[in-house]
Amino acid sequence: MHTIISRSPTRILKYIDRLKQSTNSSRSSVIFSVSPPAKSSDLSDFVDALTAWPNASAIGCLAAPTHRDAITCSVAFFKDHDSVLFRSTIPGREQTQVGRWHSFRKPEARIDVASMLEKRGQGRDWDDIWSTGGHEDVDLPEELTNVNPSLVQNIFYFSDQSPEGLSFALNKSFPRANTLGLLASSTPFITGRPVTLFHNKHIYDSGAVGIALTSNSQSRCTLNLPNGLEPLGEVLSVTDSEGNLINTLNNDNPTQLLLSAIRRADIDTTSSNAMSFKEDSEFYLATFDAATSGPGSMTKLHQFHSITAGDPSRGTISLNTQSSSPRVGTPVQFFYRHASSIPASAFSATPSPLATSSLIPSSFISSTTTSSCNSADQTKPILAFAVSPHPTLDSHSGFHFSDQNRDIQSSDSQHPHPDENDPIVVQNTFLAASENGFVLSRRGAATESRSGDVDAREGLTDSEVKGVRSEKREEPWTCTVPGCVADAQL
Question: What InterPro entries does the database record attribute to this sequence (predicted)?
Fold first, then answer.
């Protein structure tokens, strides 16, 4: 695994060429991500280089940069007999279409809210309907239909912004696997597509591409928090929830509880410099593992959700997640972050040294991307997806690049930049970021079964699991909090 960060497209392309020359002759699977350079000709060079590997198949996507004024490119190799690449066209929840976005959407089959409401009217449990996105029986991608579920430990994928159908199918079919999906960066003003996905030489603007890893080695999946977070109020308990809504906390109005906590913390919400509640998503709800965490234990924080809306009179709080809201009895706590701790854009008028220009302000980044080309490899490979800040958008032309920034991402011969840390190369790490967030679902902890039997819904036989069964796995949930990183140590 390699993550290359540079302000020079040429330097990254040369590194990719060296990787191709050193690639093992045995059959392999390749996954990649790259943040678009300023020039379309450079982007074409990246696509040509990353979609053609000797004796290998490849999937990838266009992603967001992890460092200001720089290009981030990540590449990972997996043995062919330990991996299965797949392409998914399973529909998800229909996305709201606004303004110019409408012209980029294609009339595809999507599961809409009406079908979910119909199932609710038939007496179905709302939490179950919401967590499945309204899907009943969903077929797997063709490439995964003959894969033994007991062998799959990790699944990673790049998706459009409607991953519910795929995430539900993977969750249902591979109960012992961690699944982590990146909602690929929006690219309508870059490639003319809502998102840009790659499968060898094919380019897609919807659906998903991914890889299932069948290695026998166990791995862990960790959620890393961004800098600048502050707890707001005390730990509360969910007492009523429905869909992605929380109706009561401690049998009280959750919006009023949040407003009261804001007032007690003396947070400015009225001046011109005040924190924005809705537009900037700077207020969050954290959930804790009820079985293992103590009150306010940051180390046991389980999920981290953006709060998208709140109604002071009715009290309901809306969370930005594809899964159902935290179940009744879940310990939760409000958090907030000052606007100054969130990087505003991937592009700046005055470039800073590459090593100090990270857009992912978390302990994960500080411990990995400070490595140079000559640094020692990490002990275990890490594959990580991060939430980047939303790029600055120009009202007429989309992504805003100043003339100076266009010069920064151009050839070294014309614009030399004597930065001793350029490029930054992180060995044994695959890091991809997107402003649209990621989807995470972790397997349950394995425990010994008294009888050795396994629930038939898991699709595993007694001989396959040898007396070990998985507890109820985590439902897929979406993280859109800038700076959050989910990583799997393989």
Answer: FIST_domain_N
Q: Which two tokens stand for residue 377?
A: 């490899």
Number of Cβ within 10 Å of residue 330's Cβ equals 19
Distance of CA 178 to the CA centre of its chain: 13
Distance CA 302, CA 428 (A): 26
Angle of helix 9-22 relative to helix 40-50, nearest 10 degrees, comes to 10
Query: Which pLDDT does position 134 carry in this prediction?
Result: 52
In this structure, are residues 259 and 312 in contact, taking their beta carbons and an 8 Å threshold?
A: yes
Pairing of strands 429-434, 382-387: parallel
**Is residue 173 within 8 Å of residue 151, measured between CB atoms?**
no
Residue 149 to residue 269: CA distance in whole angstroms: 50
How many CB atoms lie under 10 A from the CB of residue 229? 20
Whether 197 contacts 61, CB under 8 Å:
yes
DSSP helix, strand, coil percent of the chain (3-state; round to 5): 20, 30, 45
Residue 45, classed as helix, strand or coil, is helix
Lowest mean pLDDT among 217-226, 265-274, 353-362: 353-362
Phi-psi region of 103 (alpha: psi -120 to 50; beta: other; left: phi over 0): alpha
Q: Look up residue 318 and give its two tokens.
A: 């809306």
Q: 350-375: string of b/e by CB count within 10 Å (b at 16+)?
A: ebeebbebbbbbbebbeebbebeeee
Q: What is the pLDDT of residues 69-90, one digit of tens each?
A: 889 999 999 998 899 999 999 9
Separation CA 335–CA 267 (nearest Å): 12
User: C-alpha distances in angstroms, 343 versus 233, 320, 334, 408, 437?
Assistant: 25, 21, 21, 19, 16
Longest dimension (CA), the chain: 70
Among residues 471, 89, 48, 42, which one has the least CA distance to residue 291?
471
Q: What is the pLDDT of residues 300-326, one digit of tens each?
A: 788 999 888 877 777 788 888 766 778
Find the helix or strand (DSSP H, E) in which 103 lies: helix 101-104
Residue with tokens 């897609």: 204
pTM over 0.90: no
- Residue 351, both tokens: 């470039």
Structure tokens at 306: 């953006």
Domains annotated on the chain, with CATH: 2-89+139-221+346-441+475-489 (no CATH), 229-337 (2.40.30)
Calpha distance 148→142 (Å, rounded): 13
**CA separation for the pair 83, 33 (Å, rounded):** 18
Backbone torsions φ then ψ of 93, nearest 5 degrees: -70, 140
